[in-house]
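Retro notes (design track)

What went well: tokenization of the new backbones is finally stable.
What didn't: we kept losing track of which sequence belonged to which structure.
Fix going forward: every design gets posted as structure first, then sequence, in one message. First example under the new rule, 237 residues:
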């Protein structure tokens, strides 16, 4: 099918969404923008949109093949893909396997400490509040999601974690943690949306624990482009 790119419907920090001739599907364009700390730190990195588009296309395609419904349909250009038009739930599910980032700050435990079990945490998608962490009970009390939805999010998050962890391990990468967003396609099909890239995952080289993700930008470690390109090479090899 030849997709027609229509008007821009949404622009976020890392992507733009455009209408197509079919209201059920959108063009998702990945930008070259780098942001951290909810947009407080910004930069442009030539090629980043292409790299993330190709990485997310490969990973989402893999998840589709494994029976996990995602919004990804097909890649149509170096920086664009067709995605399903989801009704999104304003929650981020963060799955953690290793102590890093905010979990290091909250626990005081050394970065790199493996967790005895994977942990799923939820954050309310509210830019003006810096996406606060939300407890299970508070999500229910504020009616952001219901009990059935949270149970489905939890199950899907751990399923993706199992699949993605093994997928990355085969490519010499440790899946430290990652973020997922969910929506519904045609009302009742829970679907993974957004993206799976070094922007949304902590990925460490298994041999030496070198960071291959946005922490290189966030922490001003340098070699950001090289890290993203390394992930792309391994994911698409």
């Amino acid at each position: 099918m030849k997709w027609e790119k229509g008007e821009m419907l949404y622009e976020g920090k890392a992507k733009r969404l455009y209408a197509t001739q079919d209201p059920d599907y959108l063009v998702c364009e990945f930008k070259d923008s780098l942001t951290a700390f909810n947009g407080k730190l910004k930069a442009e990195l030539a090629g980043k949109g292409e790299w993330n588009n190709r990485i997310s296309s490969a990973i989402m395609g893999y998840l589709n093949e494994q029976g996990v419904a995602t919004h990804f349909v097909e890649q149509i250009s170096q920086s664009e893909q067709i995605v399903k038009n989801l009704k999104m739930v304003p929650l981020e599910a963060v799955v953690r396997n290793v102590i890093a980032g905010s979990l290091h700050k909250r626990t005081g435990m050394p970065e790199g400490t493996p967790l005895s079990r994977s942990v799923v945490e939820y954050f309310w998608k509210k830019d003006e509040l810096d996406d606060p962490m939300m407890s299970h009970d508070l999500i229910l009390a504020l009616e952001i999601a219901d009990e059935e939805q949270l149970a489905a999010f939890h199950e899907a998050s751990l399923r993706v974690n199992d699949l993605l962890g093994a997928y990355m391990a085969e490519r010499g990468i440790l899946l430290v943690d990652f973020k997922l967003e969910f929506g519904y396609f045609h009302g009742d099909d829970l679907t993974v949306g957004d993206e799976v890239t070094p922007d949304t995952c902590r990925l460490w080289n298994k041999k030496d624990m070198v960071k291959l993700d946005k922490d290189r930008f966030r922490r001003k470690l340098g070699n950001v482009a090289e890290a993203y390109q390394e992930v792309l090479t391994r994911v698409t090899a």
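Added context from the reviewer: The chain has a mean pLDDT of 96.
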